[in-house]
């Protein structure tokens, strides 16, 4: 058998053509995922500066504290303002009457 015939037989073999790359992808993906997940656990082990940690603990924002801030706000005078579309000029749109916009675009 010549080398040419062996190469042709290997190219026609579906196991070598599709199966081996699939197995390499599965095994290689497993090793890759192991490395990326190890980064996550290593990052947890890193200690931050104690001064920064104190600042973070002091600046805790809770849902209850934010609710207390806006609890007494009056939303009766609230006005819905439409944002600009990608093809519109934002400077022209803000604060204008919708009827004026309709006449400008038509």
Automatic annotation (TrEMBL):
Q: Does the keyword Transmembrane helix apply?
A: yes
Residues of the region (Disordered) are 79-106
GO CC annotation terms, alphabetical = mitochondrial inner membrane
> Which regions are flagged for Basic and acidic residues bias?
79-88
Membrane topology annotation: Single-pass membrane protein
Which GO biological process entries does UniProt record here? mitochondrial respiratory chain complex IV assembly
Domain of life according to the entry? Eukaryota
Q: Which UniProt keywords apply?
A: Membrane, Mitochondrion, Mitochondrion inner membrane, Transmembrane, Transmembrane helix
Q: Where in the cell is it found?
A: Mitochondrion inner membrane
| UniProt xrefs under InterPro entries | Cyt_c_Oxase_assmbl_COX16
The reply to whether Transmembrane helix figures as a keyword in the UniProt entry is yes
Task: Spell out the family assignment given in the record's similarity comment.
Answer: Belongs to the COX16 family.
> What protein does this entry describe?
Cytochrome c oxidase assembly protein COX16 homolog, mitochondrial
- Which species does the entry assign this protein to? Neomonachus schauinslandi (Hawaiian monk seal)
Q: Which gene encodes it?
A: LOC110571618
């Amino acid at each position: 058998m010549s080398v040419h015939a062996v190469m042709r037989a290997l190219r026609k073999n579906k196991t070598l053509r599709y199966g081996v790359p699939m197995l390499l992808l599965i095994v290689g993906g497993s090793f890759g995922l192991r490395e990326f997940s190890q980064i996550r656990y290593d990052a947890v082990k890193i200690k931050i500066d104690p001064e920064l940690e104190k600042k973070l603990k002091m600046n805790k924002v809770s849902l209850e504290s934010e609710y207390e801030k806006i609890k007494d706000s009056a939303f009766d005078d609230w006005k819905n303002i439409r944002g600009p579309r990608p093809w519109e000029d934002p400077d022209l749109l803000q604060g204008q009457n919708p009827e004026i916009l309709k006449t400008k675009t038509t």
